[in-house]
Amino acid sequence: MASMDNVCDITIFGGHGDLAFRKLMPALYHLSNDGYLSFSSRIITVARNDITNDEHIELVRSKLIEFIGESVFNQEKFERFKSQLHVVTIDFDDEKSYKGLKELLGAFPSRERVNYLSTAPDFFATICKMLKNWDLVTDVSRVVLEKPIGRDLESSRAINSEVLKYFEEKQIYRIDHYLGKDTVQNIMALRFSNRIFMPLWDANNIDHVQITVAESVGVEGRWGYYDQYGAMRDMIQNHLMQLLCLIAMEPPCSLDADSVRDEKVKVLRSLRPMSAADIERKTVRAQYAKGSIDGQPVPGYREGEGMEHSNTETFAALRVDIDNWRWNGVPFYLRSGKRMHQRNSEIVIQFKSVPHSIFANQGSGISQNKLVISLQPKESIQLKLMNKVPGLSDQMRLQQVDLELNSRINSTRKSDAYERLLLDVIRSNPTLFMRLDEVEAAWKWADVILAGWAENIIPMKSYQAGTDGPSASIQLVVQDGVSWNDE
Ligand code: NAD
Q1: Residue of the CA atom closest to atom 19 of ligand 1
Q2: CB-based pocket (< 6 A), ligand 1
Q3: What gap in Å lies between CA 434 and CA 172, rounded to an integer?
Q4: Apex CA 365: angle with CA 364 and CA 366, to 5°?
Q5: Which CATH number does 179-417+435-478 carry?
Q6: What's the CA-to-centroid distance between 435 and ligand 1, angstroms?
Q7: Each residue of 57-83: pLDDT tens digit?
Q8: Quick check: is 239 catalytic?
Q9: CA of 309 to the centre of ligand 1 (A)
């Protein structure tokens, strides 16, 4: 049991939405049961429609069972948890409707407050303004912003500058749930607590890096949202860029939030901007056509609701270059897509070949060492090494073996990324959240590519649902003598 010193009031705007029920409430249920959130803390759901507290509690109960599973749900623990649950009805645009929230929060005026905006970004400014008008923003208030924060640098700046009218930068927690995953945090542990990697982590020893986030699901009914964003804005600009930063950053001087974020932002500022010729050679965009996944037929993207003329990419692949001493000449290949043949997120660090092979005439080649960090569906870290095939033989035969670096990862109940991130907000630790300059640097770099795509510098390719993307994605790496880690 953790210490129960974290007393705060957590208000979830959009509290009856998909994210709130699927991720936030289960995370808070576990935090509370595991002793990371004091029982005196309140979880205040902002609902759009009138609902009594009892009805709300019953709704939370049924959604918890749905999303954490009947075997994990514990009625006894829920009996205690439910005393933390409150609901208020608010229409975000209607100032008067915030009165109930004022009364609830006003009962503990000096208590720490977390305002989680689990809403479309169009509401961020309005909600923050209303909180300010009702005098509900204090020095110990925080605001959590869900993605997407804009669809380019300009719109992101507009949203952030509105929120900054009401909250200071240090009170703003911009969430990227990938950073809450244990294995992602493990990248820092692996890099900065093991000396053996330190001298190898550079252009002298690393051939290239691959970052893949593949989903087998499609848009899941969120056509209106997805079609405005696409793979580049929805995944590459934020999640994949954050992963790239963790692999490429210099060692920070401490784990303190700004030290870590200072190093990440330096990477983002070192990304080589793409010229029109680079966009043509180093980027691929594609949309899925009909196909099949797990033996089930899947319609194409343009067969979705109102999508007949859509020009939004559901897949993107890029070669990214980082212009600094450490990474000069080391390509980072990024790709992300929907309706791919399987759900798979991984980072592959491919080391260079040995300078000279003494095994060349022994009948087996030497595969380059790889460090494979798998994020989903399974979380694991494997180091692929060469080893002698055991036993007697005329020749010294070699095989590649996997060194599992943390087989214990899957042995305990895995806390969800949102548990980690919510706990950090409760404890006022912004290390795993994006600072304004990080968001802007990532948009600045991505905007150039998006503008090139908007001018049709490269055509939109097509790929069959249930595959690893278009052939152009294979070509992107093959032209550099590389292949994707799709074995
Ligand atoms: P959602 O549409 O399911 O939920 C939004 C909630 O806000 C709904 O309950 C709706 O009733 C409420 N709402 C809308 N307008 C309102 C108003 N004027 N007054 C009061 N309430 C109002 O959306 P979601 O999927 O939960 O996503 C929320 C945010 O999180 C979005 O920005 C989304 O992009 C982001 N996000 C969602 C997911 C996910 O898995 N669902 C993942 C990452 C990011």
Answers
A1: 91
A2: 14, 16-20, 48, 90-93, 118-120, 146-148, 225
A3: 9
A4: 125
A5: 3.30.360.10
A6: 22
A7: 999 999 999 999 999 999 999 999 999
A8: yes
A9: 26
377 prior amide bond cis, ω within 30:
yes
Asked whether the whole model's pTM tops 0.85, one would answer yes
Q: Where are the domains of the chain?
A: 9-146, 179-417+435-478
* The CATH number, out of the four listed (3.40.50.1110, 3.40.50.720, 3.40.50.300, 3.30.1300.10), of the domain defined by the range 9-146: 3.40.50.720
Condensed to tens digits (0 to 9), the pLDDT of residues 159-216 reads 999 999 999 999 999 999 999 998 999 999 999 999 999 999 999 999 999 999 999 9
> Going by CA atoms, what residue is nearest to atom 39 of ligand 1?
19
Q: Does the N-terminal peptide bond of residue 148 adopt cis geometry, omega within 30 degrees of 0?
A: yes
Using CA atoms, how far residue 379 sits from 223, 239, 384, in Å, is 29, 16, 16
> Which of 13, 19, 129 best tests ligand 1's pocket when mutated (most atoms within 8 Å of CB)?
19
Ligand 1 mean position to 362 CA, how many Å? 61
In the numeric block, which tokens belong to residue 151? Answer: 């669809």
Return d(Cα 319, Cα 476) in angstroms, integer. 8
Cα separation, 341 vs 141, in Å, equals 44
> From ligand 1's centre to the CA of 33, what distance in Å?
26
DSSP-based helix, strand, coil % in the chain, nearest 5: 40, 20, 40
- Can you tell me which residue has the tokens 């079609």? 227
Nearest CA to ligand 1 atom 40: 19
Instruction: Tell which one of 13, 119, 124 to mutate to probe ligand 1, the residue whose CB is within 8 A of the most ligand atoms.
Output: 119
Residue tagged active-site, from 56, 86, 239, 341:
239
Distance 473 CA to ligand 1 centre (A): 33
Distance, CA of 296 to CA of 309 (rounded, Å): 25
143: nearest Cα among 170, 180, 179: 170
